[in-house]
Structure prediction request, 296 residues.
Amino acid sequence: MTTIPLGSPPKRAAGATGSGAVRARRISARVLVGVLLALYGVISIYPFLWMISAAFKNQVEVIRGGHLIPHHPTFDTLTHTWNQLHFFRYFLNSLEVCALTVVLTLVVYAAAGYAFAVLDFPGRGALQKLFVALLFVPGVTVMLPIVLLENKMGILGTHIGLVLPFVNGGAPLSVLLMTGAFSSVPKELRESARVDGANEFHIFTRIYLPLTRPALITVALITAIPTWNEYLLTRVSLNSESTYTLPLGLQTLASSNVPHYNNLMAGALIVVVPVIVLFLSLQRYFVNGLVGAVKG
Prediction:
């Protein structure tokens, strides 16, 4: 019979004590991280909640402040901002610029991504690296050349003068995502289609594009959201109020002699709601598109 010395505790008990301490530290760390994230979330979302609240208050209640929930909620502020301050016209202008930018971006860079991923042509690798390098070029550095060039072309101050720089600015990331998505498509599909007599255009439109729909939606989202919210280039380019987009319309509210903060917050709500709805409705495709592009 073996005997256990009285002075030495069992090894299992010591191991259990050590694992319990490790588990306690992990739980404490997770609780701390959770509390910090919750605090960060509250701080981040409070201005957004205040904007929504102010959009349903009158000017007096906004100035008094001190509460998020309106004491006398009203839709008059949104109605006044939408109708009498010409926000409907600004909304249509933004919609036109955004839609044209997204369509041209998808057409041009889907074709470019297909060429980089599938076709073989001289200088393909160097040209692809050049597109990726453009990711690190700040957009503000090319703003002056864009304005001067558009002035010589006679399109400065027009919506097409906004669309073309927006499409060009989305080139690096769009090409990178579409190239990765097309690269993930099995090459056997293209070879089988070529055997069946399909030309390159049919292979691109009928095989590759349907299989890369999440990547197309991802490119559309990352193009639409910055285009919808762009202020700096539109401020420099547009000089007629009839061509203003929503960010410029919002700026006209802020620059009045006596700013009405309820109207300003209602205008901000009109600007951000379409973007939020668009992203939430396409979020699943957005995530799948990013995952597919990275795998490719």
